[in-house]
């Protein structure tokens, strides 16, 4: 479903700022891929380039979704194709309630796809059901989006959006950072319950601990803008034990 | 006839109308004649304040276009209730007073004879000497060295009078609608409102300014409110003038022991508008909250001249305004808090937040504190920023396109103030106006990213 070929990415308007230095990655339908790597390796950049973040520029390579290039698409257009990014640091938006915002998101998607908009009544039902499933405090979602939310609450709110929007390719950008074990379990339960033959996940993480709860099909190690190793779930356990040391040495030697 | 020196603008223009008023009202109470005469003398010395240099009050506001224009006096047009309902907030449950072109209109007003409420024409209240009118009117506004209250007071004739008897708690709001009729002539109006809230009384007061005309109009509303001990006034001010008009409004409140005055303003209309509000905290325990939202586009200008004087100890004041500016519009926030020497244990906060949607806008934010007491808690601040790029990206990543995402963020910025409009019909109205206004603001928007 997702193909990344020789992807090079820099920061917009900054010379010599290449962060991704030739990524090749292929994610099939229904697969869960974990991207692991040390700080500064380019993990978050990869997640955001996939979503079309405004301040990165792709200097070389290609990204295709179901065979079609998405490089020229805006983030909202990518979302309409079924992509979703759970943010590491979700924005706080005063005065905007999650309910209101998610309805707008679903409406835009329906409109772009020429589908019928969900009625307020049906949406309310869906929303309440998902609020229960994610275990987010119902009074919280009446407040401003993410404003005054704790780190854990923000991540639960990302999972709520994931559940409501039902994407076909969900990217989780260090969704586990700053979470206690309970919250971690909720994220994992969300992913596991949504796991289906038609839906793929890319789970970006620094630590292996989230992968105790989500079993990935494939694990990639990203170091210094390149994927330096790819393997099964056992690769994550190896990182847990030995850290990224051996990759860092290799990477410096080849640099 | 001697010409006024060039710095005194637009005195001659208003002089014949003043002379006619004097001639026509020979039977008016002597005290009223004296008040008008003194106010006219003050206005004659001041004129329309066109001099900006060295004039702190008008430094950022060019009133030359106002001084240059000619306005007719004394024309009153026809207005229907349906017209009022179409362009302003309305609720049949409210006691509503309607003032058309400065004149109280009994037919359009909707008064329920509520116990403890004395509400009606200001002209009647003056001629019958209702309540404390003689000792109240033009004592808070009209005797100061201020051109627009002087001008309004010189022409003081009619308007609305609202008194709430002591210990009366009114369940439903009282609305005072000042409307400019649709006559084609450019006219000057002198809307006037006097509010007398008796001891331990409580009222929700909605002050609405509407304009049905298409041509430029000039309105100088003056509102004086007396909040007696233990009283509570929840005030809303809605300003919906047409885009060619001038609206120079003044509100003056005197608060006694433990009274509370809470005001939220919604200002979207006029070519040049000023909302000048001053609260005098004149006895211990008084508190005031002055909040508001202003939205400007095109070449509009909205001024907020917000000031509070802490004259006595243990009083609190809170000023908080939000502005959304687009196109080539201009806004001024001048917040002032004066804490007098005796006013120990005062607590004062001031805040002005602005969302700038285009590069062509200008905001002059000037919060200031003058503190002469030594035991005071005070804080002030002002910010101006653009729609945040990061936040937009977040919304876009969920499938909302950039224009819709911007609209959500602008609406979100306004939400906090809109939520302060509690009466349902009023809340629905300001929400509707805001939602209709946002596309116009965004159509003139050209900025993105954090300033």
- What's the CATH topology name of chain A? Rossmann fold
Strand proportion of chain B: 35-45%
> Low-confidence segments of chain A, ≥5 residues, pLDDT <50?
none
Structural class of chain A: alpha/beta
Provide the low-confidence segments of chain B as ranges: none
Q: What's the CATH superfamily of chain A, by name?
A: P-loop containing nucleotide triphosphate hydrolases
**Helix residue percentage of chain A:** 25-40%
**Largest beta sheet of chain A, briefly?**
6 strands, mixed
| Percent of residues in β-strands of chain A | 15-25%
For the record, the CATH architecture of chain A stands as 3-Layer(aba) Sandwich
CATH class of chain A: Alpha Beta
User: Structural class given helices, strands, pairing of chain B?
Assistant: alpha/beta
Rg over CA atoms of chain A: 18 Å
The total strand number of chain B stands at 21
Rough outline of chain B:
globular
| Mean pLDDT rating of chain A | 90
Considering the chains and any ligands shown, give keywords for the structure:
heterodimer, A: 255 residues, alpha/beta, Rossmann fold, 6-stranded mixed β-sheet, 4-stranded antiparallel β-sheet, 8 helices, 36% helix, B: 451 residues, 11-stranded mixed β-sheet, 10-stranded mixed β-sheet, 10 helices, 23% helix, globular
Give a verbal description of the structure.
- The complex is a heterodimer of chains A (255) and B (451).
- Chain A is of the alpha/beta class.
- Chain A is globular.
- In chain A, helix 3 runs parallel beside helix 5 (151-165), helix 4 (120-134) crosses helix 5 (151-165) and helix 5 (151-165) runs parallel beside helix 6 (181-194).
- A 6-stranded mixed sheet of chain A has the order 6-7-8-3-9-10, sandwiched between helices.
- The mean pLDDT of chain A is 90.
- Chain A has 8 helices and 10 strands.
- Helix content of chain A is 36%, strand content 24%.
- Chain A has helices spanning 43-51, 75-80, 98-112, 120-134, 151-165, 181-194, 234-242, 245-254, and strands at 2-11, 20-27, 32-36, 56-65, 68-69, 83-86, 169-173, 200-205, 218-223, 226-231.
- Chain A has one domain (2-254): P-loop containing nucleotide triphosphate hydrolases (Rossmann fold, 3-Layer(aba) Sandwich), CATH 3.40.50.
- Chain B has 451 residues and is of the alpha/beta class.
- Chain B has a domain at 73-385.
- In chain B, strands 3, 4, 6, 7, 9, 10, 12, 14, 16, 18 and 20 form an 11-stranded mixed sheet that branches. In chain B, strands 2-1-5-8-11-13-15-17-19-21 form a 10-stranded mixed sheet, covered by helices on one side.
- In chain B, helix 8 (389-396) crosses helix 9 (402-418) and helix 9 (402-418) packs antiparallel against helix 10.
- Chain B is globular and about 70 Å long.
- The interface between A and B is medium-sized, with 33 and 24 residues.
């Amino acid at each position: 479903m997702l193909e990344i070929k020789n992807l090079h990415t820099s920061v917009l308007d900054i010379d010599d700022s290449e962060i991704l230095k030739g990524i090749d990655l292929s994610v099939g339908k229904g697969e869960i891929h974990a991207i692991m790597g040390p700080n500064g390796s380019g993990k978050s950049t990869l997640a955001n380039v996939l979503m079309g973040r405004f301040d990165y520029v792709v200097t070389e390579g290609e990204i295709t979704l179901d065979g079609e290039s998405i490089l020229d698409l805006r983030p909202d257009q990518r979302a309409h194709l079924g992509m979703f990014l759970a943010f590491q640091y979700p924005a706080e938006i005063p005065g905007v309630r999650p309910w209101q915002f998610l309805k707008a998101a679903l409406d835009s998607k329906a409109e772009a796809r020429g589908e019928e908009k969900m009625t307020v009544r049906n949406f309310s039902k869906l929303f309440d059901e998902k609020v229960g499933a994610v275990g987010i405090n119902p009074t919280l979602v009446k407040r401003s989006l993410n404003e005054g939310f704790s780190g854990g609450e923000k991540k639960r709110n990302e999972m709520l959006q994931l559940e409501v929007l039902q994407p076909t390719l969900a990217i989780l950008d260090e969704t586990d950072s700053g979470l206690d074990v309970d919250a971690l379990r909720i994220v994992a339960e969300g992913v596991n319950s949504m796991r289906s033959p038609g839906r793929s996940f890319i789970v970006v993480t620094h630590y292996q601990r989230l992968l105790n709860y989500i079993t990935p099909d494939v694990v990639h190690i990203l170091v210094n803008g390149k994927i330096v190793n790819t393997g099964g779930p056992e690769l994550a356990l190896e990182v847990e034990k030995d850290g990224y040391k051996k990759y860092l040495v290799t990477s410096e030697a080849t640099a | 006839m001697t010409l006024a020196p060039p710095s005194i603008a637009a005195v001659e223009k208003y002089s014949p109308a003043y002379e006619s008023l004097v001639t026509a009202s020979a039977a008016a109470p002597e005290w009223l004649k004296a008040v008008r005469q003194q106010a006219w003398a003050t206005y004659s010395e001041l004129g329309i304040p066109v001099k900006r240099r060295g004039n702190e009050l008008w430094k950022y506001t060019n009133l030359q276009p106002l001084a240059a224009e000619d306005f007719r006096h004394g024309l009153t047009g026809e207005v229907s209730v349906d017209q009022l309902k179409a362009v302003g907030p309305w609720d049949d449950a409210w006691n509503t007073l309607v003032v058309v072109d400065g004149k109280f209109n009994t037919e359009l007003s909707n008064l329920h004879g509520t116990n403890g409420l004395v509400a009606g024409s200001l002209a009647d209240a003056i001629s019958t000497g209702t309540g404390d009118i003689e000792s109240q009117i033009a004592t808070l506004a009209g005797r100061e060295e201020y051109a627009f209250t002087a001008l309004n007071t010189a022409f003081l004739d009619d308007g609305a009078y609202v008194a709430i008897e002591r210990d009366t708690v009114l369940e439903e709001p009282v609305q005072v609608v000042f409307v400019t009729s649709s006559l084609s002539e450019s006219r000057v109006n002198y809307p006037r409102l006097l509010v007398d809230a008796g001891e331990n009384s409580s009222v929700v007061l909605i002050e609405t300014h509407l304009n049905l005309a298409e041509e430029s109009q000039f309105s100088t509303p003056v509102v004086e409110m007396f909040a007696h001990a233990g009283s509570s006034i929840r005030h809303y001010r809605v300003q919906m003038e047409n885009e060619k008009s001038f609206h120079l409004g003044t509100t003056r409140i005197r608060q006694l022991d433990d009274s509370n005055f809470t005001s939220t303003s919604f200002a979207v209309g006029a070519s040049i508008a000023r909302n000048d509000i001053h609260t005098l905290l004149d006895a211990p325990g008084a508190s005031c909250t002055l909040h508001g939202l202003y939205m400007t586009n095109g070449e509009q200008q909205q001024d907020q001249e917000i000031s509070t004087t802490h004259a006595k100890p243990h009083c609190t004041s809170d000023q908080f305004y939000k502005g959304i500016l687009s196109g080539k519009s201009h806004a001024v926030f001048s917040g002032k808090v004066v804490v007098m020497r005796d006013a120990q244990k005062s607590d004062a906060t001031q805040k002005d937040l602005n969302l700038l949607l285009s590069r062509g806008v200008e905001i002059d934010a000037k919060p200031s504190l003058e503190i002469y007491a030594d035991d005071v808690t005070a804080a002030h601040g002002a910010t101006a920023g653009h729609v945040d790029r990061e936040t937009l990206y977040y919304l876009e990543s969920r499938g909302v396109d950039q224009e819709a995402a911007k609209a959500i963020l602008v609406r979100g910025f306004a939400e906090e103030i809109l939520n302060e409009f509690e009466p349902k019909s009023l809340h629905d109205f300001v929400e509707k106006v805001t939602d209709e206004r946002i596309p116009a603001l965004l159509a003139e928007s050209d900025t993105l990213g954090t300033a």
